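Sequence and structure are no longer studied apart. To make this concrete, we show below a single chain and its fold as tokens.
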Amino acid sequence: MTIICLPLLSQTKEWWKDVNNEYINAHGGGVLFYNGLYYWFGEHRPENGFTTEVGVNCYASSDLQNWTHKGVALAVSEEPGSDIERGCIMERPKVIYNKKTGKFVMWFHLELKGQGYGPARAAVAVSDKPEGPYRFVRSGRVNPGIYPENMPEADRKLTWNMKKYKKWWTPEWYKAVNQGLFVKRDIEGGQMSRDMTLFVDDDGKAYHIYSSEENLTLHIAELTDDSARDDFRRSVSCVGSTVCQIGMQDSNGLLKAVFDHLEEKGIDTKKLPRVHISGCPHSCGTHQIGEIGFHGAVKLVDKKPQPAFIIVDGGSEHMGSESFGKMAGNIVAAKIPAFMEALANILNEAPEADFGSWRLTHKTQYMDLIKSFE
């Protein structure tokens, strides 16, 4: 392991400036070494306050002393309601290179605009080049529904009355925290993530190391092999009718069919959203909160029942803007892979950065696309 410490002052005892004689503005940063250069990523901090008004800066150096400003690696968004809207708080950016995907992956601590330090999210962005620009993928709490591996089974089964522990720092409170008081409180939505770093082991596995449980504990989460290829590849489905006795359709099979179809066609999926699929109207696949959701149904085609899925539009799982989507159509299951292909092609030709941004001004076009596949 190589540890790099960057001093606040230069060797001349002055505030550190880059090669253009501008003050280096890269707070809470991390350094990536790639192809003979060191890349320093850090928060651009305004003169007053600590909200993020610009984004994450990137500097490059061959000697760790003379730094060239490469620009803003990840800029804030001007879109109202975006997770990284100007005025949010972006902290502790760290970047690693993923040899499997050939992408540079940035993780950072994110607080949503106007919500203080309550959201406590981890966020991820990707780029083809170390200096960026990086494309924001998503943010959220970490590992929803998953207990820490070293949490005893007995502690996982405990139930807590949070009202009893309003007073912090008492012996009873400490005991409860050690037994998973905050883990259990946050298990459904995911664990808090604030100050953080990344680590890549000798075997290539990457880990997200972050303060959690109200900054009282340190958690370590293994990253997936693709380190966030795109949000669509993290689509979810329930087990579906092949396993579930009340499932109407094979939701898991549909998701696989969509993945396989787009892979075979060589479709770029980076602008598609995370899709939520349930095999029936129940919420096991959380179809109600997806920007695009599907739930199992049946459709009469030439007076014969065919496996189909109701498409749900406009749901949101983002903290502060949670909402259930509404039914937008009923598509035969066999047509859905082609529907997703058509949508991806439209998005890839559009100037908007992602599906959510595109849908804001193209809802009529989206509804027409759905109808064309019904």
